Amino acid sequence: MHALVFHGNLQYAEIPKGEISRVIEKSYFPTIRELLKSEIPFALNITGFSLQFLPQELINTIKEGIESGLIEITGTAYTHAILPLLPLDRVEAQVVRDRTLKEEIFEVSPKGFWLPELAYDPIIPAILKDCGYEEVFIDGEALLFSNHLNSEIKPIKPLYPHLIKAQRGEGLVYLNYLWGLRELRKALKLTFGGKVTLKAVKTINAIPVWVAVNTIAMLGVGGFPLMSVKKAAKWLRGMDNVLLYGTDIEFFGYRDLAGYTLEVRKIVELIEELNTDIIFPSKLKHSGRKLYLRTSSWAPDKSLNIWTKDEGNRRLNTLSYELNGENAFLAENSDARGWEPLAERRLDAFKAIYNAWRDEE
Known about the structure:
- By secondary structure, the chain is α/β, with parallel strands linked by helices.
- The protein has 2 domains: 2-303, 7-stranded beta/alpha barrel (Alpha-Beta Barrel); 308-361, no CATH class.
- Helix content is 42%, strand content 14%.
- The chain has 13 helices and 10 strands.
- Strands 1, 2, 3, 8 and 9 form a 5-stranded parallel β-sheet that branches. A 5-stranded mixed β-sheet has the order 4-5-7-6-10.
- A hairpin with a 4-residue loop joins β6 and β7.
- The radius of gyration is 19 Å and the shape is globular.
- The mean pLDDT is 93.
- Keywords: Carbohydrate metabolism, Hydrolase, Membrane, Transmembrane, Transmembrane helix.
């Protein structure tokens, strides 16, 4: 058995705001429709803020998928905020706003919560449980590194550094890609199936998102060099009770990955090649493991550095820390602090901070 999660965020750091309607047309509509047509169940995670941009036709399609038992709605932070960087009252505000909107629009109460950028700390599960959540999606690889809690003493090294270099176009790209595939297959051996129980301020069941599994599926579906649907299926065969895909819906039909754009029909082919049953993530079995997860994200080094170390990010984090009200949500949007944010995305947060400051005056 396998499961699927498609994460949608129309505040995406690298996508211009003027492209939002095209993202919906090229990615959201065809991907969701094809999965429903193929009767493949999947979890759909769209930020509450993004829902305002969805045409009513798409909202109706999603509601039909829910009613037919093919779509499981998950919760997340309203504006895709990096929750470990926020005061606790703002964490709760982000969680509650998103959940309330989904209950109003889709008439369901999500039970699973998708952490933006899978950024986590051990107090977040308590807030999620207080807000009615039963499960949380986490970075599986961060679990593997959580036996040592101080990254200053023992820094985390990425499991597939050459693949990261190849994706960035660094060095001898093809050679890095070849080495990266070897590293990726080695990392796959570290994964395990099933949910875990997290030791946290309040214990909660967690669904690991394994980057190795996800990347292999993407490389196969995208038809990358030396990869294909059949080869990806061969590598993944035997990996049971895991998320087969768990990341951005925008990679299907709209946003390229190192020059390759994924096609949803190919993921249908991968499922057929694996000869596997697809179930909702909530239906995955428990592994019996009870583990501690360190403060982390799904960045290659599992840290929060991407959203904290840059001077602009530090300024945004400092200025937005004590904000409240509607402008606070926009100021907290992670995609103003993203991996490679566009200026207009970053300016949205600075403008929200300024407006909040003026309102307080």
